[in-house]
Amino acid sequence: MMRNASFTKLLKRTLHNRPPPSSDLDRLREIVLGVGSLDDLESDLNRSGIQVTPSMITQTLESCEADAQSRRLLRFFTWSAKSASPRPADEPFNLAIRAFAAKKDPIALNVLISDFRREGRAMDPETFARAAEALVRCGREGEAVALFKNLEAWVRCPRDRVTLAAIVRALCMKGHARIAEGVVWNHKDRIFIEFCVYESILYGWCVSGNVKEASKVLEQMRSLGVGPKLSSYNSFLSCVCERNVKSNPSALAPDASDIMRKMQSFGVAPSVVSFNILLSCLGRVRRVKEACRVLLSMQGMGCDPDWYSYYLVVRVLFLTGRFGRGNKLVEEVVAEGLVLEPRFFHYLIGVLIGKERVGCALDMLERMKKCCTREYYGPAYDLLIPKLCRGGDFEKGRQLWDEAVAMGVVLQCSSDVLDPSKTEVFKRTRKHEEEPVPEEPVEESMEGPRRIKKDLIV
């Protein structure tokens, strides 16, 4: 008898967990993704006669999350939560909150959180983290903090180091470091403050551009005996550079050098990301000489430039009319055998087209063919063909089109651009020729990559 009872229980559990017939799931998906009012949606669900189970709710949410309108998905979930047999556990509700958090729908989140409170359900920490992040992104940081303060009372979720780190991270991602500090201060006697919380607060001050407060957090982290990591220093470096771009461009390189020296004194070596942050800001304010010097100094500090480092320097050379030096640097980098991503050439072709240097852009395309495989040629041809045709050179545009088709390159631009009767030709009203910048002599004592970069300093 005991064996028969055990077998009966196992059979019932198996039948309950068994996936529903695909026709029922397809029908539910068709109704949720359909059109009409929300009342029509609920009427269709009632007329369908489908006996909804918790597993069907979960599968329908997962299959419709990306395509369904938020309100239709919410109406389906509230209907199915009442109609399902047996009564759904907490898992479908947590899944629903994560789905609406991904859709950034604060109203739906508030409805489901109210259901949690009314029915006494338990929210898991991961779901809370998603909900808090979505609320903050929607500009409802006050609601996110209120949810954290009432986690245990509202949704039976513990307020511990995990959920504290989650609310602080959500707030600081949008620069609400002051609010995050208040939350930490109110809970510092009850909850152990992990190191990642200080990292989030530092990032939050950097997002808001407050160098003074970010510097205080850095000192506080050092005083705790655990030094900041490379990511924290890079966030602070970016904050300082952004401030100097706006107010004091001449201080970009000196301030960045001071930060990197402090990093090294605390045993943290600057990475290529650190230098790229500085190079990007120098390029934005057209500090060509300093950008070239930074590129030269990277190898001296044991940090080899990557493709993006070279792109940033070549870009500022092109933007300031130093096309000869920019092309020379590209040729030398290709000759050295550095692995260059297709984006390196795509971006530079775009810069050259913007500077009306179509001939240089075509030369860049030829260099790209030597370094990249043909499946990456498409964006380059999509830039060049319309530019040539709108400039009146339909013959060259047709030549590039035929060349791309012959290689099997997938083009996004329309073939109509090749038709002179459909493409408007823009004639220049003035000459866009850049005056050549005098070239400085190359120092014969410099060899290899250092010789290349030394010659670029202007």
Automatic annotation (TrEMBL):
It comes from the Eukaryota. InterPro entries: PPR_rpt (IPR002885), TPR-like_helical_dom_sf (IPR011990). Residues 447-458 have a biased composition (Basic and acidic residues). Pfam families: PPR_2 (PF13041), PPR_3 (PF13812). Residues 436-446 have a biased composition (Acidic residues). Residues 1-23, 428-458 are annotated as: Disordered. Coiled coil: none annotated. Keywords: Repeat. PPR repeats lie at residues 194-228, 271-305. Belongs to the PPR family. P subfamily. PANTHER family: PENTATRICOPEPTIDE REPEAT-CONTAINING PROTEIN 3, MITOCHONDRIAL. This is Pentatricopeptide repeat-containing protein. The lineage of its organism: Eukaryota, Viridiplantae, Streptophyta, Embryophyta, Tracheophyta.
